Amino acid sequence: MTAETSQTLDRGLRVLKLLADTDHGLTVTELSTRLGVNRTVVYRLLATLEQHALVRRDLGGRARVGLGVLRLGRQVHPLVREAALPALRSLAEDIGATAHLTLVDGSEALAVAVVEPTWTDYHVAYRPGFRHPLDRGAAGRAILAARKSPCADPGYTLTHGELEAGASGAAAPLVGVTGVEGSVGVVMLADAVPDRVGQRVVEAAREVAEALR
Fold it and tell me: How far apart are CA 211 and CA 208, in angstroms?
């Protein structure tokens, strides 16, 4: 810690990070051990975070991330979208297909940024806010593939007709972006995705990931 930083704020943020990394919550004792501070300090931190709905405690006393974090998370989408737009524009123009950035929202895939090509006579209409199950469509399947092999290069995923009849999709997951789980892809009216598109989508996903780091 330096003179310019707040030790209390630092500890509070560390509490949130620890809770975000567990599905079953943590007790005061467990947090005390991991933070290297006494239980009284942890109680005060949790009480403050609870006031802001950033933490909740269940009947067993285990602390978990609170719903207030969701309100903060909603403000992340515009920032992520802005960072991704240059790569999406380049992808859409290069391929001549609608490009999109999709993020995980609970058990669904949520399109948060969409760019349509300017030079094609027709293309698939795909709008920000469009949702679909993670196990349908290239965007969601790419994310699931990355979950199964987090340490490997997941490459890209191809699908046809899963979300719209006659439309094919290609998507690649965002890799190495802390706190963001998503994919970059294209959707086109075609029976199959041309060979070069898959690798181009992987390149675009890498560009977006770099912009978000």
Answer: 5
d(CA 52, CA 35): 21
Q: What is the pTM of this model?
A: 0.70
pLDDT in tens, 154-174: 899 999 999 999 999 999 999
Q: What are the residues facing 104 on neighbouring strands?
A: 109
Q: Is 170 helix (H, G, I), strand (E, B) or coil?
A: strand
Rg (CA), the chain: 21
What single string gives the DSSP state of each residue in 84-132?
HHHHHHHHHHHHTSEEEEEEEETTEEEEEEEE--SS-S------TT-EE
CB 204 within 8 A of CB 99: yes
Integer Cα distance of 156 and 127 in angstroms: 22
Encoded tokens for 78: 């515009």
Q: Bridge-partner residues for 133, per DSSP?
A: 108
